[in-house]
UniProtKB/TrEMBL annotation:
Residues 1-36 are annotated as: Disordered. This is Co-chaperone DjlA N-terminal domain-containing protein. It comes from Glaciecola punicea ACAM 611. Residues 1-21 have a biased composition (Polar residues). InterPro entries: TerB-like.
Length: 185
């Protein structure tokens, strides 16, 4: 075996790197999940932050999520209200389309696909005589902006000229129970 003039006890830089890193005690590993070992190689021993302003990012997402929850609850509410009397007029559909156009939609599901699902859910609730329970389930989303939700509900139920008994009952339930706390604040 030929010796290239190097001592076999001398380590290459890669061996030194591996040995150095293998000697780091586990209690000295970085605890910040947004850092890697490579962040410490620059010699500063300061981790490199990958994400900044994470608190602002999270609060922005929560705002969008609350707004999107409201949008979805409004669509479900309006569909329920215009279907509860068993007939959908062109004026109700036009107002529904106008309201939908004003919503700031942020979802991976298209708004038209969501509306189709809302129509099905409302039909099932009405057919099973569970419209009241369905309305209560919308409360959390609607209470993001209860005054706006009530205004939309009042508008959609009066646009065809007459409120049915079912519409009046659901409006009373909406204003006195579902949105009551939010409207008082």
């Amino acid at each position: 075996m030929r010796n290239n003039g190097s001592d076999s006890s001398t380590n290459s830089p890669l061996d030194t790197f591996s040995i150095t890193h293998s000697k780091i005690p586990p209690n000295e590993y970085p605890k910040d999940l947004s850092t890697t070992d490579a962040d410490f190689i620059n010699g500063t021993n300061e981790p490199h932050k990958i994400y900044e302003n994470t608190q602002e990012d999270v609060s922005d997402k929560n705002t969008i999520t609350a707004e999107q929850g409201f949008n979805e609850a409004v669509i479900n509410l309006l569909v329920l209200l215009y279907q509860i009397d068993g007939k959908v007029t062109l004026t109700e559909q036009d107002l529904f389309d106008e309201i939908i156009a004003t919503l700031n939609w942020h979802s991976g599901v298209s708004i038209s696909a969501f509306i189709n699902g809302a129509i099905h859910q409302a039909r099932v609730a009405i057919d099973q005589l569970k419209a009241r329970e369905y309305l209560f389930k919308l409360g959390t989303g609607l209470n993001y902006n209860p005054a706006q939700a009530l205004e939309y509900a009042m508008d959609i139920t009066e646009i065809d000229g007459k409120r049915s008994e079912e519409e009046i009952e659901l409006l009373a339930l909406l204003s006195n129970r579902v949105l009551a706390r939010g409207l008082v604040e």
